[in-house]
C-alpha cells in the first residue's frame, strides 16, 4: 500500500506540473485576460485511471463557470497532457476539474474566530 501511495503522489505531481505549464501557455485564449487559474492539488485514483484537479480561480466573477468550461473541454486538455507526457506514461488518466474552495473556507473560519474573540471581550 505504501508503494501505491508513492506512485499516486509521483503521478499527481507530474500531472500538476505538466498541466500547470500547459495552462500558462494555452489557457488565456480560453478564459480571457485578468483571470488567474491555479492548480492547488491533484488526486489520483489508486489504479491511476482518473485524476481530479482542484483549481483556484482568481479575478473571475463566476469561478464555477470557468471550471465547467474546463470540464467541457477536458478532452482537449487531456490530449495536450498526453502530447507532453507520451514518453513518461503508458496510459493517461481521465481528468476532471473541481473548484477548490479551501481558501474561502479558511477565510470564513478566521472571520468567525475573530468575531467570537471580540464577543468574549
Mean pLDDT: 87
Please report the first level of CATH classification, the CATH class: Alpha Beta
Distance between the termini: 50 Å
CATH superfamily: K homology (KH) domain
Helix content: 55-70%
**How many domains, in number, for the residues?**
1
**Biggest sheet, spatial arrangement of strands:** 1-2-3
Shape: globular
> What is the CATH architecture annotation?
2-Layer Sandwich
Note poorly predicted spans: none
**What fraction strand?**
15-25%
Count of helix runs: 5
Give an account of the 3D structure.
The chain has 121 residues and is an alpha+beta fold. It is built from 5 helices and 3 strands. The chain is globular, with a radius of gyration of 17 Å. 12% of the residues are buried.
What is the topology?
Blueprint lengths: L1 H25 L1 H4 L4 E9 L5 E9 L4 H10 L1 H12 L8 E6 L2 H19 L1
Parallel strand pairs: 2-3
Antiparallel strand pairs: 1-2
Helix pairs in contact: 1-4
Brief overview:
The protein has helices at 2-26, 28-31, 63-72, 74-85, 102-120, and strands spanning 36-44, 50-58, 94-99.
Descriptive terms for the model:
three-stranded mixed beta sheet, alpha+beta, 121 residues, GMP Synthetase, Chain A, domain 3, 5 helices
Amino acid at each position: 500500500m505504501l508503494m501505491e501511495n508513492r506512485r499516486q503522489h509521483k503521478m499527481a505531481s507530474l500531472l500538476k506540473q505538466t498541466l500547470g505549464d500547459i495552462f500558462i501557455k494555452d489557457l488565456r485564449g480560453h478564459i480571457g485576460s485578468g483571470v488567474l487559474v491555479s492548480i492547488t492539488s491533484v488526486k489520483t485514483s489508486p489504479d491511476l485511471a482518473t485524476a481530479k484537479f482542484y483549481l483556484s480561480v482568481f479575478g473571475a466573477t463566476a469561478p464555477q463557470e470557468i471550471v465547467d468550461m474546463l470540464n467541457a473541454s477536458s478532452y482537449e486538455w487531456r490530449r495536450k497532457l498526453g502530447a507532453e507526457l507520451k514518453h513518461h506514461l503508458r496510459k493517461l488518466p481521465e481528468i476532471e476539474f473541481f473548484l477548490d474552495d479551501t481558501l474561502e473556507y479558511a477565510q470564513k473560519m478566521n472571520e468567525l474566530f475573530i468575531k467570537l474573540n471580540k464577543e468574549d471581550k
